[in-house]
Amino acid sequence: MNASDPALQDEAPLGLYTRGAGQAREWWRVTPSERAHMYRIEHGQGDDGEVDIDTEIDLDNLEAKLLKWRREGFVSEAQRADEARATQAGSTFSAALQRAVEMAREAKAAQARPKTHTPTVRIGPIDLPRGEPNALVPRVNAAYLFTGRGDDIVQDIVENRRVMLIGHTGSGKTSFIEQVAARADYGVLRANMNGQTTIGDFVGFWTVKGGETIWVDGVLPVAMREGHWLVIDELDFAEPSILAVLTAVLEPNGRLLLKERGNEIVEPHPSFRLFATANAAGAMSAYRHLYQGANLLNEAFLDRWRVYLFDYLSLEEETEVLLRTLPALTRPLAHTLAAIAADCRAAFAREDLASTFSTRRLIDWAELMLRTGDVERAAGPAIYAKVSADDAALIRSVIRHHVIFDA
Ligand SMILES: Nc1ncnc2c1ncn2[C@@H]1O[C@H](COP(=O)(O)OP(=O)(O)OP(=O)(O)O)[C@@H](O)[C@H]1O
Ligand SMILES: [Mg+2]
């Protein structure tokens, strides 16, 4: 080692080296000397700060001393701080891991439990009465993570309130309702209002079959009569005629009047529940430019719902979701990917990015990464090809930053 190299001097191990505690505490202090390439070393015992050895040595000598001190059990303050940090990180990590283990056990137990044996199912802190297993009950996604954001909504379901979930695309609105229904055995019907559902599909229509004119119920009366949960997706794109029909049904126990069928009244089954999701309604109206064609839902209409803002999951929650969905991922990898998504969302909130970063996109990207083993190649079809060239460039730089510095 060349002691005259100034770069090496910058890295010289200055600081305090100690062993023992209280009166038995012994220390060596290393400070730069006023003489070039030399170090001052001082020795003392106890806490009174008294120095019994004070001398100057060169770097080679200092290195020999450091080795000797390490053998004798002296530890530098920097090392102690590192160890404390590692212990702290270790305990945070094991607490998180413990929670994950419990949740995984719970999910497994829930799957193994014969469903019909309990009259209720517990979701978060709430007991939800069970429905009847039927072909429309969604499949349980064992990787699904119930977070506190859903507790009030489950209570609203128990109380038969109309629930609207608003939030950016892929923040988990639809899947939340589906996963509650999957666990509690309720059938789910969905109607998407973004150009696909006509009033006929929604309410019903007359048609001719085998020479006979028959009435076909739309998705709303089917759900009401049979006690399914109806999720109206992208309600902020619905035609006014559909909103008008809905308004009547929105009252608790609100009935549906089928004018086309000579004013037949459809009574809601006790299990019937009505949900809506929207990207740009209410508190999300500021983002209407991102969801072109979305209508402003008026306040009188919104007041008939409990409206919940569904934000993206937190960094920790999303890391957990990635690990549960793709068990082949390691925790540091999942954490890095979730941090990239969080950074992109922050850039979106600052309007540096025009597109947001959904949980759906994140999972898809991670899945593709596990297939290709290549971060960039996976980002092509999962991210870059879906956004503008400017956005792709910024997202690429966010990814590079994390992939290089978190590794
Ligand atoms: N809590 C969660 N646990 C596990 N996975 C989740 C969770 N939340 C969201 N996801 C994942 O994110 C995906 C997208 O969620 P979802 O389809 O519910 O979003 P959305 O808000 O309805 O989006 P859009 O507005 O585009 O309809 C889901 O398929 C699921 O894989
Ligand atoms: Mg949805």
Secondary structure elements and pairings:
Elements lengths: L5 H5 L4 E5 L6 E7 L5 E8 L5 E8 H14 L2 E2 H36 L7 E4 L2 E4 L21 H8 L4 E4 L6 H12 L3 E5 L6 H5 E6 L2 E6 L1 H8 L2 E5 L6 H10 L6 E3 L5 E3 L6 E6 L20 H4 L3 E4 L5 H11 L5 H19 L9 H14 L2 H8 L6 H17 L2
Parallel strand pairs: 8-15, 8-16, 9-12, 12-15
Antiparallel strand pairs: 1-2, 1-5, 2-3, 3-4, 6-7, 10-11, 13-14
Helix pairs in contact: 10-11, 11-14, 12-13
The site of adenosine-5'-triphosphate has 19 residues, from helix 5 and helix 12.
How many β strands by DSSP?
16
The first-to-last residue Cα distance is: 30 Å
The unreliable regions are 1-10
CATH hierarchy class name of the largest domain: Alpha Beta
Shape call? elongated
Provide an overview of this structure.
The chain is of the alpha/beta class and 407 residues long. It has 3 domains: 68 residues, no CATH class; 197 residues, P-loop containing nucleotide triphosphate hydrolases (Rossmann fold); 91 residues. The chain is built from 14 helices and 16 strands. Strands 4-3-2-1-5 form a 5-stranded antiparallel beta sheet. α12 packs across α13. The protein binds adenosine-5'-triphosphate and magnesium ion. Adenosine-5'-triphosphate (ATP) binds next to α5 and α12.
